[in-house]
Amino acid sequence: MSEAPLTFSPEVAEALADRRPVVALESTIITHGMPWPQNLDMAREVEAVIRTAGATPATIAVMGGQIHIGLTDTTLTALARTPPDQAMKLSRADLAVCLATGRTGATTVAATMICADLAGIRVFATGGIGGVHRGAELSFDVSADLQELAQTPVTVVAAGAKAILDLPKTWEVLETLGVPVIAYGQDELPAFWSRRSGIPAPLRMDSPAEIAAAAAMRARLGLKGGQLVANPIPAEAEITQSEILPVILKALDEAETQGVAAKSVTPFLLQRIFELTDGRSLGSNIALVLNNARLAAEIAIEMAKPA
Ligand code: PSU
C-alpha cells in the first residue's frame, strides 16, 4: 500500500481487503457538474446502482488533508451542498497543493484516476471525460484527463467525451497518446447526450469480460495507462445530435462573449445547456452516469474473478 494520505470508508476497506469488486466515482460531477439537489440524488443513486449490481462504490474527494476513498452519506451531502467556488476542482496539477493546505477538493477524472490507482481500484465510472475544447488551436485548452488516461492504469467508463468539446480532435489526441478507446456494443463512438457521433470507433467490445481481459493484458504487456470505455447513453434518455448541437453552439458563443476560460468553461457550459434545455440535459446526464455505473460494476466483477 502506498504512503499517500488515504482514508478508506469501512465498506470500501473491507471490500478491498476481501478482493471484492470496487468501482471508483469522481466528485467534480457532484460539486461542479450538476446543481443542488439533483447532484446529491445522482450521487446516491449511482452508489445504489453499483451495490445492486454486486460491487462496492467508492466516491473519492479530498478533505482535511486526506484523500477519502468512499464517503459516508453525511460527507456526501456536505460535499453536494458545497458551492462550486468553495471546492477546488482537482486535477493532477493541484491534488498535492489541496492536500497540503487542508482544503476541500473535488476530483476530476484525472485526479480520481490517480487516487483510485493509489487505492488499488481498477475501474471508475463517470459521465463524460474532459478533452480538447473547441478552439483549442488558439486557447490550448486540453483537459488533463487525456494525459492521465495515457499514464494511469484505470479503466474509465464514460459516455464518450462531453459533446461541448471538439470530439474529432479529442479522439485524435487519445490515439496519439496510445489510449484504447473502446465503444461498447456499437461501431460508432457515442457523444455524451447522443448515442451517435458519426465518428467510427477505433475499437469495439461487447462484454464486460472482454474489457476486463484487455485491462489484464495491458498489465501483462507492461503498457502503462488506462482504457476508455465509451458507453452509449440509453436510447430512452438520449438527446439527438441535431437537437443538442444548436444548444451547445449557443452556450459556447455565450462563454466566449463573457470571457469564460480554463477550469470554468466546462461547468459554465453544462449549466447553460441545462437552462437552455429546460433541465432535459441534466436528466440525460444522470441517466448516462447510472448506465456507466452499471457497466463499470460488471467490469469490476469480471476483474475480481480469479485468473
Ligand atoms: N462528467 C459529467 N459531468 C462533469 C464531469 C464529468 O457528466 O462535470 C467533470 C469531470 O470531473 C471531468 C471534468 O474530469 O468534468 C472535465 O473538466 P475540464 O474540461 O475542465 O477538464
Automatic annotation (TrEMBL):
Keyword Manganese appears in the UniProt entry: yes
Enzyme Commission code: 4.2.1.70
Active site: 26, 162
Binding site for substrate: 89, 109, 143-145
One Pfam family in the UniProt entry: Indigoidine_A
An MF annotation (GO) of this entry: hydrolase activity, acting on glycosyl bonds
Enzyme category, top tier: lyase
Cofactor entry: Mn(2+)
Keyword set, alphabetical order: Glycosidase, Hydrolase, Lyase, Manganese, Metal-binding
Recorded family membership: Belongs to the pseudouridine-5'-phosphate glycosidase family.
Function statement: Catalyzes the reversible cleavage of pseudouridine 5'-phosphate (PsiMP) to ribose 5-phosphate and uracil. Functions biologically in the cleavage direction, as part of a pseudouridine degradation pathway.
Protein name: Pseudouridine-5'-phosphate glycosidase
Provenance organism: Paracoccus marinaquae
Upper taxonomic lineage: Bacteria, Pseudomonadati, Pseudomonadota, Alphaproteobacteria, Rhodobacterales
